[in-house]
Design a protein that fits this description.
mainly alpha, three-stranded antiparallel sheet, 63% helix, extended
């Protein structure tokens, strides 16, 4: 009787939720794709659209500020030395309106920013875009795949436009970095730089740095997938044909000739280069022949010591504001809270204090809550 009752309960649970039971332990391609999250396309579209809008809004704001700062600096330089100022600005023009127009054009549906030179590779964005291309060609893998066609196309358009925006903003960042160095070099000709000119340049330098820091935050956000997209990508990886599709259609495949990718252009360029194993064998052979049998151990100890020192240097570089060769090194003390949103700069706290009993009052416990706005990493103001 007890076993019969257990069987009836299991039958009652799995019968109305048969699709759920199949999703838990997928045994075939159909079961795996049937478990594909339906909210994946909406989530990708919303995330790409939101980040696209924030990129555009922040870039417009910083370009307007930088144009204003440079105009102030130009007026002060003309008052100080009109001949040198005219020569510098005439020979080194920069059009902030054209940069803004280039950004706006990158967001159009038919725009295409060719090439990836000088841009940061974003693995998550590449995986999402390639996955959408795969499903665009194979909608039959999804249940009622024809009904997802519009969502797939819309999501792919949003992701492509976002990728274009990211590439254009990085190009703008490089131009602003060069402009800052040009202004710095122009001001270095003065033996005694007036305080007004120094302050104007510092204002420009700070705005250029904070724009780069803002872009870095957005790139970090792009490389932080949520649970929904992780699940969708994990299901696609198990799908036959997806891995080979990634090797031929991803952005990474355009940079390197991946195994099985079928690319030949980069393969010819890499032909004849020594592999890592060959280089290691040559190093071990040279070390053993010149330093004896214990030379290899000594070299390994020195390599480990060098790695430790290099790691410490990397940590210092990361604390200075970045971790890549294209990072901006500020010539001032940056405020890391500057690029955060209002909610991101709010911090809450709870305080509990107990006082022992006295002859006049019993034991008391005070509870307090606080909400502060972080002015910088060390100071905040609030209630």
């Amino acid at each position: 009787m007890r076993y019969l009752l257990i069987g009836m309960i299991l039958s009652w649970y799995c019968l109305p939720l048969s699709s759920h039971c199949q999703e838990t332990t997928p045994t075939s391609l159909t079961d795996k794709i049937a478990a594909f999250p339906s909210g994946f396309f909406r989530k990708v579209n919303d995330q790409a659209t939101s980040l696209d809008q924030r990129l555009t809004r922040q870039t417009e704001k910083y370009l307007q500020r930088l144009a204003k700062k440079e105009a102030q600096l130009r007026r002060k330089m003309f008052r100080q030395d009109s001949v040198s100022a005219k020569r510098f600005f005439d020979n080194n023009p920069i059009d902030y309106s054209a940069l803004l127009q280039k950004l706006q054009n990158a967001g159009r549906p038919m725009s295409n920013v060719s090439g990836m030179s000088g841009t940061t590779y974003l693995p998550y964005l590449d995986s999402i875009k390639t996955s959408l291309k795969f499903l665009q060609q194979r909608p039959d893998l999804l249940p009622n795949g024809a009904s997802y066609t519009t969502q797939i196309n819309s999501s792919l358009t949003s992701v492509t436009q976002l990728q274009n925006k990211v590439q254009v903003t990085e190009q703008i960042q490089q131009l602003l970095r060069q402009r800052r160095e040009q202004l710095k070099a122009s001001l270095s000709q003065y033996t005694h730089l007036p305080a007004s000119l120094q302050n104007s340049y510092q204002g420009y330098s700070q705005q250029a740095y904070y724009y780069g820091a803002q872009l870095k935050e957005y790139r970090d956000e792009l490389n932080d997938p949520n649970k929904l997209t992780k699940r969708a990508l994990s299901l696609l990886v198990q799908t036959p044909g997806f891995t080979s599709f990634m090797k031929t259609h991803s952005d990474l495949a355009g940079l390197f000739s991946l195994p099985g990718g079928g690319g030949t252009s980069n393969a010819k360029a890499l032909a004849g280069l020594q592999t890592r194993d060959v280089v290691q064998q040559q190093l071990h052979g040279q070390v053993a022949s010149s330093g004896g049998p214990d030379a290899g151990q000594a070299i390994n100890q020195q390599i480990q010591s060098a790695k430790t020192k290099f790691k410490a240097l990397q940590d210092k570089v990361a604390q200075a504001g970045g971790g890549s060769s294209s990072m901006d090194i500020p010539d001032f003390r940056p405020n890391t809270q500057k690029t955060k949103s209002l909610l991101g700069r709010l911090e809450g706290g709870i305080n509990i204090q107990s006082l022992p009993s006295t002859t006049s009052f019993p034991t008391t416990t005070d509870f307090g809550a606080s909400l502060g706005y972080k002015l910088n990493d060390r100071n905040s103001i609030g209630l």
